[in-house]
Design a protein that fits this description.
six-stranded antiparallel beta barrel, alpha/beta, 350 residues, 17% helix, 19 strands, 2 domains
């Protein structure tokens, strides 16, 4: 596991997790709460008000990756019942997987070993080596991610017998459809690119009619269950020439490039050339956006709320600045905003 050289400066008390999708709580997707933070003020709104807080000429960049079923029960040769997260297929045909404790995947199994076999319904996984293969761990207690060979069709097994990744804080299981965004057209994310979830077709229409443009990128997410201090894993992404040109034109015209989520920020900033312009680029990214390596293209962020010490929180601080991030998190905690994939959102405009 790669470790981070920085730690988030933002501190806050334990938040409240969203126990279910908004619809299950009797709330429209775009009626969840939205906290708008700028250097001038903090405003409490609803997500369907998003267009009121942006300007004509701004560009919203969204992730068009769709969520796949990536969690399955399994039996380990050494640990017995476990939960497996299929984080990503690699170019050589092996998989990045995470082994977690049964039945609710509440914690990572950190003492797995090469040669452990995990038996699923329809496939088996044999652990080869830690991923990435440097063998380091920020916990000092073992490895969380593994490269594994799959016997049988793991994609088919997950599609037939798998379920969306969840971690036990939900009130019950929810179907894969609950983990899709209105933009998700390219299946590949192990976990939902959740910042896009509150958007609806009606809200997209309202934004476009106000002169706010929308452009897609693709970043297929891995698993989000990093240990404290652990860097995000490499992820597959694509920024097209059309989206790159749109971002460059908006910046040249004085508009703002607002990333919908940390995934979009990572993808866009992975496609910036030495002159600070967006270019078409695709492949695997290991790029980390942090206060020490700040964004050069993204100037605003729509985001969910991240846990203390999470690497995603460093990215938020890099975009918004640490003072504005702290003010936003203080207001979100005080206001009872809900955390995690089905929670409320923030719009940070530094």
């Amino acid at each position: 596991m790669r470790t981070l050289d920085e730690t988030p400066a933002t501190v806050f008390t334990a938040p409240e997790f969203a126990p279910s999708p908004a619809e299950a709580r009797g709330v429209r997707r775009d009626a969840t709460r939205l906290l708008v933070a700028s250097p001038d003020d903090v405003v409490h709104a609803r997500f369907h008000d998003l267009a009121d807080h942006l300007r004509a000429g701004d560009l919203l960049v969204v992730n068009n990756s769709a969520t796949v079923a990536a969690q399955s029960d399994a039996v380990s040769t050494r640990h017995g019942p476990v939960v497996v997260h299929a984080a990503a297929p690699l170019d050589d045909g092996t998989w990045v997987v995470e082994v977690r404790a049964a039945p609710h995947a509440a914690r990572a199994v950190l003492d797995a070993q090469p040669g452990d076999r995990l038996t699923l319904s329809g496939a088996t996984l044999d652990l080869l080596e830690p991923y990435p293969p440097d063998g380091s761990s920020p916990t000092g207690r073992g490895n969380r991610l593994w490269r594994a060979t799959a016997t049988g069709d793991l994609d088919r097994t997950m599609a037939r017998h798998g379920r969306p990744i969840s971690y036990g804080y939900l009130d019950r299981p929810y179907p894969l459809a609950a983990y899709q965004t209105v933009f998700g057209t390219r299946p590949g994310s192990a976990e939902m690119a959740s910042a896009g979830r509150p958007f609806t077709a009606e809200l997209v229409t309202r934004l476009v009619s106000r002169g706010i443009a929308i452009a897609p990128v693709t970043l297929h997410t891995g698993v989000s269950s990093q240990e404290a201090g652990e860097a995000p894993q490499p992820e597959r992404f694509e920024v097209t020439a059309t989206t790159a040109a749109a971002a460059n034109a908006v910046r040249a015209g004085g508009g703002r490039v607002v990333a919908v989520g940390t995934t979009v920020t990572r993808a866009l900033e992975s496609a910036v050339d030495d002159a600070g312009r967006a270019v078409a680029r695709a492949g695997w990214t290991e790029h980390l956006v942090t206060p020490a390596s700040p964004p050069r293209l993204v100037t605003g962020l729509v985001t969910g709320w991240h846990d203390p010490a999470a690497s995603h929180l460093l990215l938020v601080e890099a975009v918004a600045g640490r003072a504005l991030t702290q003010a936003a998190y203080d207001a979100a905690v005080a206001g009872g905003y809900l955390w995690h994939e089905f929670g409320d959102a923030g719009l940070l405009l530094p």
